[in-house]
Amino acid sequence: MNDLQKRNLRRFLKNPGSLLGSIIALIIILLALFAPLIAGDPLAQNLSERLQAPNPNHFLGTDQLGRDVFSRVLQGARISLRLGLIVVSLSLFVGSLVGLTAGILGGLWDDLLMRITDIFLAFPALILAMAISAALGPNLNNVMIAVAAVSWPSYARLLRAQVLALKHVEFVDAARSLGATQTRIALRHLLPNSVTPLMVQASFDIGSAILTAAGLSFIGFGAQPPIPEWGAMVSETRNFINEAPWASSSPAIAILLTVLAFNLLGDGIRDVLDPRSSQR
Amino acid sequence: MLAYLLRRLGYLIFVVWGVSFAAFFIAQVVPGDPIAAALGSNARDAQIEAYRIKTGLDKPVWVQYSRYLNRLVKGDLGNSLRTRRAIAADLRDFFPATLELTLAAMVFAILFGLPTGLLAALYKDTVIDVGVRSLALIGGATPIYWLAILLISIFHTKLGWLPGPGRLDAFLIPPPEVTNMMSIDTLIAKDFEAFIDSIRHLILPAIVLGAFSTALLARMVRNTMIEVLAQDYIRTARAKGISERWVIVKHALRNGALPILTVLGNLLGSLLTGAVLTETIFSWPGIGSYATSSAISLDFPAVMGVTLVAGLTYAGINLFVDILYAFFDPRISYA
Questions:
Q1: 0.90 surpassed by complex ipTM
Q2: Which of A35, A251, B8, B78 is most buried, judged by most C-beta within 10 A?
Q3: What structural domains and CATH numbers belong to chain A?
Q4: Nearest CA to CA, how far is B149 from chain A (Å)?
Q5: Domain range for residue B41?
Q6: pTM over 0.80
Q7: Does residue B151 lie in a domain region?
Q8: Is residue A59 less than 8 Å (CB to CB) from chain B?
Q9: Does the beta carbon of A125 lie under 8 angstroms from any beta carbon of chain B?
Q10: Are residues B229 and B105 in the same domain?
Q11: Are residues B210 and B106 part of one domain?
């Protein structure tokens, strides 16, 4: 770690928002990683223990089938985090490919690719995702495809703008005059120097991908019961909100905390990289 | 200015065409079987064949596309496989409910987002600011369907203060349909009891739909105002001894109005097209719940219709906001 990185890390951790975000995200990631060790069987039903309030045996109570809510929420963390990471990786890959190509080739290619991006931005995201997931069949994998299909355009725009800004900077000119190929310039020079804005966007997007996917599952276009996906859990237990609010509120609060954590992280990284915004 | 308008209009047409093209081909490549969805799995071969010919599904894809485009230009979105009605007519029936809900949500967002954002900016780094920012962060991360069932549970089931899902109490006679917006139609019918009831029905879904926007708006207003309040002309105004209230109203708010207007425009567009979850939970008969039911029954012509109208609305509102910008901000020239 060089001095600049150390200073940036210090600034990042000095900001109460990003510190809080990091702590929540770290706890959620650890809980998700060690879920099989901490949690019980998320699918085990025990009808004699249905709708129990939180107690020492069932930390977050039980749902209408007597399943342990705590175990289900922890398993759900694995599902949601994995989903968020895969969706963001997919969108990052497609978006970067489109953005890099448009920025480097320019001209007609740039126009064509950017107009396609505009069209995808004009699509109503949730309706498109719903249609894709309904058509492919409602399950978790198709939800990831559907959400990635609506979230890649922002990366394409971002990376294109970066490429246009960097295209004629000295070190790129130098690489070009040394005979580097377009692909090498793109992958070795342009992409690495665009990592930071992409990171900010990706951090926000993990949260919003989790939120969108859970929304899709809630209305039945995503994970199907009894899979302990957070949105599906809220949906399954919604009719018991009056007698057992813990059953639907626990997964909902888990979504809230996860999204909040990644939004705070995104804010924090942006503030470090763009000192002007941290003055606000 | 005229050239700019024409260019933007051409661009709008292109985007709408692109959305229609993409929507058509997405519906083509998906593996779901619309015929089975329309006729049920027990349909006989002859029935299926007759249906294919009737709906043009027996023709090559490019013929289907050119027919689709031809009809589209005439404003014909085809027929829904589910409701068996013209999709354009369906959307005319469902859109006003969405518009009514969206406008109510916007009113909520402006009523709460604007003043709280302003307060946070004026009292930057105080308890008020931290409170508003925390609320905005939480509002931006809350799953709205949970907020919806929570609010229904508290204000409808437990306290009985507000009605649950639906647009009008079952015991009231719905007014004659004029605008298809319940609150307006009850006013036109001069049925004030029904009007009050329709407004009461609007409150919870409007809060739910508007929550995210309120959070976004508060954040945006705060950041814009902090930036504006740090400008030289504000310091000059203060130095001249103008009252703080006048400085804020006359100098700061005016200069902060444009970015705020843009956010409001974007919000209007995304709310009109993003009411899916809220409408589904509140049994609100808008295009969001229409899209959901259509997608469940693999009624792709209807989903395409909604997508197209939503895309057009979104692009149209963006264009409108840009034009407003050009009119109100003399610094921007569109030559």
A1: no
A2: A251
A3: 79-273 (1.10.3720.10)
A4: 7
A5: 32-76
A6: yes
A7: yes
A8: no
A9: yes
A10: yes
A11: yes
Place of tokens 């399954």: A236
Which tokens belong to B152?
């229904």
Same domain, B47 and B194: no
DSSP of A5-33? HHHHHHHHHHSHHHHHHHHHHHHHHHHHH
Of A126, A132, A241, which has the smallest distance from its Cβ to B149's Cβ?
Answer: A241
Say what the alpha-carbon torsion angle B3, B9, B14, B20 is, to the nearest 10 degrees.
Answer: -170
Question: Cα(B99)–Cα(B116) distance, rounded to whole angstroms?
Answer: 25
Q: Which residues of A touch B311 (CB under 8 A)?
A: 122-124
**DSSP secondary structure letter of residue B250:** I
Would you write out chain A's pLDDT as a tens digit for each of its 280 residues?
778 888 888 888 888 888 999 999 999 999 999 988 888 888 888 888 888 889 888 888 888 898 999 999 999 999 999 999 999 999 999 999 999 999 888 889 998 898 888 888 877 778 888 888 888 888 888 889 889 988 999 999 999 988 888 888 888 888 888 888 888 888 888 888 888 888 888 998 999 999 999 999 998 888 888 899 999 999 999 999 998 999 999 999 999 999 999 999 988 888 887 655 544 4
| Residue B297 included in any domain | yes
Nearest CB to B273 within list A124, A234, A235: A124
Do B224 and B112 lie in one domain? The reply is: yes
d(Cα A205, Cα A88) in Å, to the nearest integer? 7
CB contacts of B157 in chain A (<8 Å) are: 242
Nearest to A248 among B149, B157, B280 (CB): B149
Which phi and psi (to 5°) does residue B198 adopt? -65, -35
